[in-house]
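Morning, I've got a small favour to ask if you have a moment. I've been staring at a protein lately and its backbone has me curious. You're getting the sequence in one-letter code plus the fold written as tokens. I've dropped the whole record in just underneath, so have a look:
=====
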Amino acid sequence: MKRNSFFSFGVKNTRKARLLIGAIFITLLILNLTVQAQTDSLRPGIDPVDTVQIQDSTEKSAAVEMQIADTSKTQAAIPEPAKTKPAISRQTAKSRITKPAAITESTEIEIKGYPVMGIRGDTLFLVYSKVGVVSPQERAVNITRRIEKLYDEDFLKIDSILIIPEEKNYNIVYSDKIIMSVSQTEAAFYEKSAEQLARDIKQKIQDSLTDAKKGKRWLILLLRIGLVLLVVAIARLVIWLIDKGHVRLLNFVKQNKNKWCKNLSYKDYTFVTAKQEYQILLSLVKALRWVVYALLLYIMLPIIFSIFPFSRTWANALFQLIWSPFKAVLIAVWEYLPSLIRILVIIFVMKYFIRFVKYIFAEIQAGKLKIAGFHTDWAMPTYSIVKFLLMAFTLVMIFPLLPGSDSGIFRGVSVFIGILFSLGSSSAISNMVAGLVITYMRPFKIGDRIKIGEISGDVIEKTLLVTRVKTIKNEIITIPNASVLSFNTTNYSSEAVDEGLIVHTTVTIGYDVPWKDVHKALIEAAQRTDLILRKPKPFVLQTSLDDFYVSYQINAYTKEANKQAVTYSNLHQNIQDVCNEMGIEIMSPHYRANRDGNTTAIPTKYLPKKYRAGGFKVEIKKDDES
């Protein structure tokens, strides 16, 4: 048999169910009786006069009682004289009081007194006069309620019921609450002064409260403590049931894991795996348990607080503490809806306007729309600039509509971020400006073979900040656009397709070789080279006549600017082959004076004193005579 740490349940499930249903039924019954026994703070028709301060005038008290009279709940709670206790007519009251001189015999018949009931249901005194539009009957009901509320206070100090004079009236008050106000008109019915009548009524109220509280204070306190324990016990039982349900739900999810959890994928990419989906389900189940816990706490605390009179306002305070932030957020969202709609409209309009602008520039890039002086390769870069400006303009229109945009903190943070951006991005901005200049200078495009400074290679990427070049050794070199703008740029590909790129190399040949033979050999070598165009025909230039040789430069056309290294290598090979075939030595003759090679070049002071240079060794070999 399983036992809970707090409760012990029977073996059979039916017995557990019966005990559970019985406990819940008894609890609801007791709570219902408790709630009915509470006064104004727990039932409809709360008398707002309780909050009136002592300094308030009699007219304010009357106005509050008029509000009570206007509510339907108060009207429903007003007992008819026939239902509670018959109103005592002026004639019936003759045995108790004497007719005031100012009241006529006809008035004497019409005026009735309405009883103010004590805690035990006895009549404390009668109310004859009205205040403003509040009838005596309504006043009697309101005063009865205030007395009942005083009785419900656990820490009531009966001696603190005081009489406070105010002009011609006397207010019977407790703490900062007015129980009733005794006027001269009311006192006339009792043929007493207002002060004396107020004292009598005060004494009757004190006696009624004292008599009712005798011997019952501890009983009521124990009853309320018992109710608190019962509520806690029921809450503990509900928590146990929640835990049981949570475990069953986890087992149910585990049993259906393979059925429910599948990989969420599109083509070759998996967004969420089955394992991740299972973990999400477990997280949702755990979150659901905590939501139920919070709901149980939200229901339980007001019930516990309502048991003790001094804590009845705590429930509302706790509710407001939790609800106020959510309420503020909901109100802020509701008030922000018009601005949000305006933002959405602005974004919608600008989105399709940008699409229209993109269509125009796409037509320019495709050559369908031609604008004089505007090159087709400017289309997309210009579109990017226009798109950026349009988005910035959109942000400017949206910014005043953002929540908190008019606050000083928001503006301060914006300025701070702007300063950081300005100070930390000076080089980036210079590169961006250089990128814009390069775009409209058109020095190269993607795929061109270029040379920037000492770097030579093919352009593989051109952005607003950098240019990337791939060398013939497969090296990717990133060059900031500011550096590109500061160096000379050589483009080998811009004219290669239309007119051809001229590749050239220089060979030095001695004066003993006729120049015409050299020209013929170099042209023949160029024509044998792959990737060299036959037309235009290669040509030779004599670039210099030096002291010992002539410099010959062979020039040939090619359209393959990106294959210069291969072209030059093949050309050099063919020059050697042709020159060798034609008996031309590729050399540069020089005349020089030779020193005595036997003497060392080391200074004399470093040589030994007995050092002597060796002599020349000459060997003469003769062929044997046959």
Q: What stands out?
A: Residues 1-18, 28-109 have pLDDT under 50 and may be disordered. The first strand starts at residue 88 and ends at 89.
